[in-house]
Amino acid sequence: MTTGLPGALAGLNDEQRAAAAHQGGPLLILAGAGTGKTRTLVARAAWLREQGVPASRILLLTFTRRAADDMLARARPPDAAAADRIWGGTFHAIAHRIIRAHAESFALPPEFSVIDPADVADVLDTLRAEHDLVGTRRRAPRAAACADIYTRCVNTSTPVAKVVKASYPWCADFVAQLGGLFRAYGAHKRAHGLVDFDDLLLLWRAALADPAAGPALRGLFDAVLVDEYQDVNAVQADIVRRLRPGGAGLTCVGDDAQAIYAFRGADPAHLRDLAGEFPDLAVVRLVRNYRSRRAILRLANTVRPQHEGLELTLTATRDAGPEADGIGAGVTGPGDRGAGLRPVLVRCHDEATQAREICARVLDGHEAGLRFCDQAVLVRAAGHSDLLEIELSARGIPFVKYGGLRFTEAAHVKDFIAAARVVANPADNLAWFRLLRLHEGIGPVLARRVMDALALTEPAPLERWGAAADCLPPRVRPAVSATLGQLIAAAGLERTADRAGIILSALHDPVSARYADAAARLADLQRLADAAASRPSLHEALVELTLDPPASGSDLAGRPRIDDDFLVISTVHSAKGLEWPVVHLPQLVDGFVPSDMALSTPAGEAEEHRLFYVAVTRARDQLYLYAPLRLHHHRMARDDGHGYGQLSRFLGASALACCDVEEAAPPRPLIPHLAPLAQTIGRELDALWGADTADTPTGI
DNA sequence: GGTAACTGGGTTTTT
DNA sequence: CCCAGTTACC
């Protein structure tokens, strides 16, 4: 191990070194895709430590748990003591850590429930009727829409009337009711010890703004490093501001062309505003791309949206060459040597052809020596790979899928979480509701009656279980009492492993009775209980599960074995920050890429462009784009004369000029004329029906 | 009265 | 595949 200088700065290029060793005021690192952003951030943390900043006084804020884990693992010196650790995690995880440590000061029960967006919608659904938002009139917003509006108001610090007017105009008649609903929602959460994702941020911000708590909380840190700053929302930007008033000790890393979370209230304007906020802001640009071959970078630079003052053009380092890369370089022809293979746009007859084409190219790569995990298929929305997944299975190509449906959304997993939440926070009415209804014979009405008898907002509801059970008809009472008896016992225990074990055994019978495939589900729950057992408390286990849900049940079982080799299917959002030698981008067809849901506003279309930029820049060596020309259940919009629907308008002609175009072989039917066969079968069957009306064959 | 079983229509992206 | 709305059954 090397010690001393160049130490932290070893192996960095000039710009990276300037960023890592920046002294004094606030710093913005404008880092294009693949320019060594993570490496620079890790180096900066190491450099700060060499300057005498204790690791425990450095805070690293990221957007995903994976990014945090990755950086913390690289930033921790091998000889570091456990106590000598950088604070690192997502905004939400760090907020939780602080709130949990001071739960009493925040007037929260020690094991308060952190609820996910699905829970938020459930709560709003129960409150909706009292606020004249029931769906008898067709136009009343549904629970999920109410939840979207709520979180948008909070995360952009915008009044409900304004949000509705700008983004939900069809709800304009309900602004007053929504306001009332959201007020009631806040009271409801307080009464039942519920904290949603937005609350985590709001509570942290409020504490930082408090005259007494604020100085203490921001005094915990000498340096704050924020990754993906283009994806902060108004509350997060405010948290950063209050952590580092004046900007001293602040490092933000970001790229406004990669802002893809506007739907969550994020706004790249916060990054752009940094310069105005901090007059002494230093800006360092990282433009040397270490990831992609030059042919791919040409396309990336062509589609990259440029914003005045933050322009950035990536230059290639993997293909040393005389000419500068830049916008317009896409005119270079396919004979151009040393730039890698040009991106290929594969025109496919339909979606099935596209699926076959992707499989064929994946297998080609595999035969050429690539592992499956060196290739990724990136989609705009999780459902876009449905047909492909069938084709992959049929051909025996192993794959894992990230994004889309998550393990914690499976019904039995929710059941387990509900049971655990009843134990940890008996005031949690959502958890009670779900747990009670898990039992055969209990629906919404009986569950509600039991919960009323429990008086959840009063202290110690578990002590009233005996009386509350009398609300149940004798037929169902024994089963529910058996479950609750065990959960009440679990609540009285200390060790997390014991609690998790009893919760699991309490669920055994109701889960077995409810689900046909109970054995597989119980195996999932066993893994869940095992994972929970290793956490410091049931509360910690539940929060981790909520803030960072495992993508699959096997995820929970631990690291995949080293010899396992899977093709990766991921949403573009989930692929941010990652890279693969070969990337496949399917569904470049009207309504899918760009998504027609996003095109109603100019801001939405701009975000679709940024998403495409993110997708393109994931590829190291080879990029395949697939344009199916027709899809089932989907009308093709008017073609723009190039045979791609609106695609060439979306990407621009210069982007298409960066690609080679290939035609996928059209599907050829194995049996050309099936109709006569159907008639033959029809006649055969008609013989079975008797001879009375055999004039017209039945057919199939 | 209350629950379960059936049916038909619709599906972005995630901490 | 999930939700809402409806019908059938206890």
Characterization of this structure:
The protein is of the alpha/beta class and about 700 residues long. The chain has 5 domains: about 5-100 and about 200-285, P-loop containing nucleotide triphosphate hydrolases (Rossmann fold), CATH 3.40.50; about 115-190, no CATH class; about 330-405 and about 565-665, Rossmann fold; about 410-550, PCRA, domain 4; about 670-700, no CATH class. The strands form 4 sheets. It has a 7-stranded parallel beta sheet with strand order 13-14-12-15-16-11-17. Strands 3-2-6-7-1-8 form a 6-stranded parallel beta sheet. It is globular, with a radius of gyration of 28 Å. Helix 3 (about 65-75) links the parallel strand 2 (about 60) and strand 3 (about 85-90). The protein binds a DNA duplex (15 and 10 nucleotides) through helix 4, helix 9, helix 19 and helix 26.
| Secondary-structure arrangement, i.e. CATH architecture of the largest domain | 3-Layer(aba) Sandwich
Return Rg in Å.
Answer: 28 Å
Instruction: Give the total of domains.
Output: 5
Helix content: 40-55%
Q: How would the global form be characterised?
A: globular
Count every helix, treating DSSP H or I runs of 4 or more residues as helices.
Answer: 30
Structural class: alpha/beta
Report the uncertain regions.
1-5, 324-335, 557-562, 633-641
With strands numbered from the N-terminus, the spatial order across the biggest sheet is 13-14-12-15-16-11-17
CATH class of the largest domain: Alpha Beta
Hey, roughly how much beta strand do the residues contain?
5-15%
Distance between the termini: 75 Å
Q: Residue-averaged pLDDT, rounded?
A: 85
CATH superfamily of the largest domain: P-loop containing nucleotide triphosphate hydrolases
Oligomer: single chain
| Main β-sheet description | 7 strands, parallel
Q: How many individual β-strands? A: 17
